[in-house]
Amino acid sequence: MERTSFIGSISAILILVSVIIAHGGSPGVFIDKAGILIIGGGMLCATMVCYPFEEIRKIPTLIRLVYFNKTRSPKDLVELLVSLAESARREGVLSLEKRLENIDDSFLATGIRMVTDGMAPDAVESILRLKIDAVAGRHHTGRGILSAMGRTSPVFGLVATLLGLVLMLSHMDPDKIGGSMAIALVGTLYGVLTANLFFLPFSDKLRYYSEKELERMELGIIGILGIQSGENPRIIRMKLSMFLPPSEVLVESEEGAA
Amino acid sequence: MERTSFIGSISAILILVSVIIAHGGSPGVFIDKAGILIIGGGMLCATMVCYPFEEIRKIPTLIRLVYFNKTRSPKDLVELLVSLAESARREGVLSLEKRLENIDDSFLATGIRMVTDGMAPDAVESILRLKIDAVAGRHHTGRGILSAMGRTSPVFGLVATLLGLVLMLSHMDPDKIGGSMAIALVGTLYGVLTANLFFLPFSDKLRYYSEKELERMELGIIGILGIQSGENPRIIRMKLSMFLPPSEVLVESEEGAA
Amino acid sequence: MERTSFIGSISAILILVSVIIAHGGSPGVFIDKAGILIIGGGMLCATMVCYPFEEIRKIPTLIRLVYFNKTRSPKDLVELLVSLAESARREGVLSLEKRLENIDDSFLATGIRMVTDGMAPDAVESILRLKIDAVAGRHHTGRGILSAMGRTSPVFGLVATLLGLVLMLSHMDPDKIGGSMAIALVGTLYGVLTANLFFLPFSDKLRYYSEKELERMELGIIGILGIQSGENPRIIRMKLSMFLPPSEVLVESEEGAA
Amino acid sequence: MERTSFIGSISAILILVSVIIAHGGSPGVFIDKAGILIIGGGMLCATMVCYPFEEIRKIPTLIRLVYFNKTRSPKDLVELLVSLAESARREGVLSLEKRLENIDDSFLATGIRMVTDGMAPDAVESILRLKIDAVAGRHHTGRGILSAMGRTSPVFGLVATLLGLVLMLSHMDPDKIGGSMAIALVGTLYGVLTANLFFLPFSDKLRYYSEKELERMELGIIGILGIQSGENPRIIRMKLSMFLPPSEVLVESEEGAA
Amino acid sequence: MERTSFIGSISAILILVSVIIAHGGSPGVFIDKAGILIIGGGMLCATMVCYPFEEIRKIPTLIRLVYFNKTRSPKDLVELLVSLAESARREGVLSLEKRLENIDDSFLATGIRMVTDGMAPDAVESILRLKIDAVAGRHHTGRGILSAMGRTSPVFGLVATLLGLVLMLSHMDPDKIGGSMAIALVGTLYGVLTANLFFLPFSDKLRYYSEKELERMELGIIGILGIQSGENPRIIRMKLSMFLPPSEVLVESEEGAA
To answer: Is C136 on the interface with D (CB under 8 A)?
Structure first.
């Protein structure tokens, strides 16, 4: 479990609550049931207009991914591919068949199986590229759902505020104007926080995971095609290690050259 | 009929009405004929400046599509294409002619007919790609119309508000200022809801449908070209199944590898 | 003449005027010479900083295009190209020379003339593609000018409002504050309407016309190259008919397959 | 000198000053030293964080370009290239060497020299394309600097306003509230005008010049490669004339077909 | 060290402080601990939801890069590559091995080593291009983190303001309303400045560095492939010098033609 996102969400809320208490406010002032209903419900309803049910029901899965997914190290993938290449060189491509059951990455397994089945390299590459396109398309839709929620929640925050203001102005009572205004503003606050602390960052994190996953798939294709064409494992390692991050960011003095 | 969008629109309105009633407001306060006229009329008029009549008259059709269209399962398409490939392998490509009348997908039928007519593979692919481009262009225009409506409705909401404020300020009457302000704000509320509960999500849903439709067409081209070149139906199935969604989102451990 | 844009502009203004009158306001309250000068002049001046004179002087032509241009039916173009292909097949490519004077589409005429001149197919295509790029570039600049006007007019609306507020606040007179505020807000109203009822939709409509024009040119290239290579007129018709719109939007069950 | 931008900037300021005077305001009310310092200084400082010194020091040159640059007519370039092609056809490619000193366009001169040096056509094209990429990159950075200034000036206008409001609110004096508000609003006005009358249009104009310059370079490549391969000058003229603007915008009935 | 960014940040703060003092305000009015906590903490927490820990921990390194990185002159790289090309021509490609230890650019060293190892040109190019893609991807993520901070800091500035307003309105005390409003506005000021003086310009500067770094890599590939194919050093210099900036911006009359 990658805890950073979880800690980020919790800490932000704790900071806000502690500031409220430190200023002698009660957090209760900031709880407004109508606001929660309008922003949460409105956001969900508007997203239901954007996507069919088969996509909407994925929302809990998508949120779970943000908090619990873990990117796998590309280093392990490089080692696995190089070791497969070495086996293939020593014992022939067919020897990879017995290693298939230990490969838990379905994309890689699909590719290796096609190689051991003796499919033509062109067909192998085009099938794996179709897979990448399909996965990229599904990730794109997933991010789109969370973006739609992040885009509509401040809108319904504004709706809650406008609704509160109209109700207040149509029964104007000078003594209560401050409190009513406060409730109206809480709607805007909800919308802004829901979008910027949850759904827009959720969408950003899924994009990050998606980029990493697609990069792994690219690595997989380079490795599988190299294995199939009997390329030297040393060259395969060299190609794949180009993707490994150097220890220092942006300063490119890394082991790739070794 | 895919009911999610419909339920989304209705539920959002019910939530807003119930909040208004729960706060002792009458929904009547939120009905302002001038506002409806300015936002609805202004949105439509501005869109008429953007597009010629032959596009404008498609608006009802586009809205019907959002609420009533249903994406067809790519699984059925895969089965159909594989079964056509098997017939073609067993009985020759010409045997597909008698199956043409059972194919209700016009894109697929066009492609299969060209194959049975003995057209060159290059010509078949280029004609089908022209079709995809033309369909993508029409979908793009359709989404553009709904986007234009979604983009202009909050603008006319603001126009209604400004108009209300100017009228109010030019005959300032302290007793009525609250009520006039309320009416002015209702304009903004209309514009924001019209855009974010209807037209922008409509445009998003059409994009979703369009992506699915174009993906189906890509599947169709892969299948048709495979059939024409006498490719093994097992390989065609493998290629096409790359597009099928796994049971779990984003976790790619799917049957494609089987 | 395609009247939709014209009717859209007029109707929107009539709606606003009728709402003002219905609310007992006089349209005169909404006429503010200083505002018109700042928004109209500022918008034009800022656009003059963006583009040189040879582009600025095209503004009246561009606006005329929005209101008076008419897209030509691609169906007629398809018929013309197929008939030319049939002549060429029957009587040879040189026979097209005598039909040149009846072709009022200069792009098509250029292409046919190059074919009758016996230029190589590669040269014909590359020259026509250069033309498409040049036309696309000019259309892009034309839309850019109208977009710049649409982008700057609300800005100068805000400038008018700020200017009005500063003048009002620096000679504060409680009795006049309402009227002054009203005049200040009229500036914002002008800017918002100028942009969203005129210049941004103008730019959208030019994009629409441009897309249609470039699509026609693509059709032209397909037809001309088909004619030059002596392709079967039936296949040329099939290719070109892929671009024709089906009678129903987004539902792709069209005559293209026939 | 192309005076349109200059006239645009001056006229906009004259319009604003005349409106202020006509409303009995003194332009002095609109001069606020602190505002000028915050917007001008803040904009420049923020841009200094975006770019290193070697780019920042180009700002005066970039502004001079906006006001004083002049696009050269592509027509002259077409004539020059066709005349070079005719010389090359008549007297051989080496004869171009003596015309080199009369070519003041360094891109063209580089290309012609490579041709007379007998470099391979592939090398000539790839070197000229590298040049185009490098020039496009430099233009892109130049526009980026002016955009950054245009993007940050309204932000510092808002900073000036907020700063003014905080100072005013922390020493609240009912008699002065109008005047202080006026000063605060002047900050917003400065920021909006600086961005929309100067730096954003500057960036737009540089983009326009850049597009024209890159188009000239494309023309140059077509001409140079045509000359090198001994193409017929008539065909070179035909290709190049595709880029010339027709006398009427968007109506494509031009001399290119002649 | 490239000091421009550093001077920009410091100067902007000095300008603001001096304006505050000149207007008789005390800078202390602008220091609000709760605001600092909400904007700084909220920005960091929201960014933690966007990215996993392995990216978040790079923030200090990224900021150090903005202030302390220095772009290396492409001129030196051109000289180095041309000198390597001359050695390779004179003494053979293997002679480059002994110069490897003096090359501190790891990308170049990787490339030269592959050449001296006798790897095929295709493999060399594809490995170096993989490296460029990987580096571009890492730079993209780095910029994304700083952009996320720049995008969320004004949001939390708004959150601080809303929170302050709600607290103020729920205990309305007419005497303190000015001071409370001032504190609320300071939150917006913090958010706007944090974004526009720091994190958004940081992201812009990283993009600038990234473009320069990737351009250097492109130069490196051109040089390495030229060396491997035994291209004339004069032609290599000509190709590479196309990237060198002319002394004058946008005026392309440079030494490249010499």
So the answer is: no
